[in-house]
Write a structure and sequence with these properties.
It contains six helices and four strands; from the N terminus they run αβαβαβαβαα. It has 195 residues and is of the alpha/beta class. The chain has a four-stranded parallel beta sheet, covered by helices on one side.
Length: 195
């Protein structure tokens, strides 16, 4: 099918690449956000590695269960469904009790994680874009706001006690035990550009 051909083309340069479909086009070819995995977008899910649903699911939490049930019918993990949460809270449901933009969007992420899906964060750049100040002050404010969003408050990161942050919903992963091990822990921000 056309969808399978697209997946093959996307992986042609890197066979281990993940293909994640965004919940936008239905099987009829029309633009229509489903806000979940259902029979209207499942054809794309079954030939991809996952689906990132649109973030309007809060209008009916039953949409979370629809995603889980549809994935199970496909004999797939419900964690292959990345339920969308907009960090700016556009359509994420702060009117429905999931908080306001930014750190309060963690509440919506918690609802998704506790229901049994993965979470797809839309626009986590909120921490940078909403930081006050200019120059170095902006960077310091961004760094503080970013750490609050991802790992919470406190003197250090403690996965067992972090609250009101994204880290409380992310399972710990072991450090790779084999060599070679390559990584880059650069935050990707600063006042200088270096090569």
């Amino acid at each position: 099918s056309l969808i399978s051909s697209l997946r093959a083309a996307l992986r042609s340069g890197n066979p281990s690449a993940l293909v994640i479909w965004y919940d936008s086009v239905t099987i009829s070819g029309s633009l229509n956000y489903q806000n979940c995995l259902d029979d209207q977008n499942n054809a794309y899910f079954v030939v991809s590695d996952g689906i990132f649903t649109n973030y309007g699911w809060w209008v009916a939490q039953s949409l979370l269960q629809t995603s889980i049930t549809t994935a199970q019918k496909d004999q797939r993990s419900s964690f292959d469904v990345y339920t969308g949460v907009d960090v700016y809270a556009r359509g994420t449901g702060y009117q429905a009790g999931y908080g306001s933009p930014g750190n309060d969007s963690v509440s919506a992420a918690g609802v998704c994680a506790q229901a049994g899906t993965s979470v797809g964060l839309f626009a986590p750049g909120w921490t940078f874009e909403q930081a006050s100040g200019t120059g170095e002050q902006h960077h310091q404010n961004f760094e503080q706001q970013d750490m609050l969003f991802w790992i919470g408050t406190g003197a250090g990161y403690n996965p067992g006690t972090s609250k009101d942050c994204i880290a409380q919903y992310i399972p710990e992963r072991p450090v790779p035990a084999a060599l070679p091990f390559f990584t880059n822990f650069d935050c990707g921000r600063g006042l200088l550009f270096n090569v």
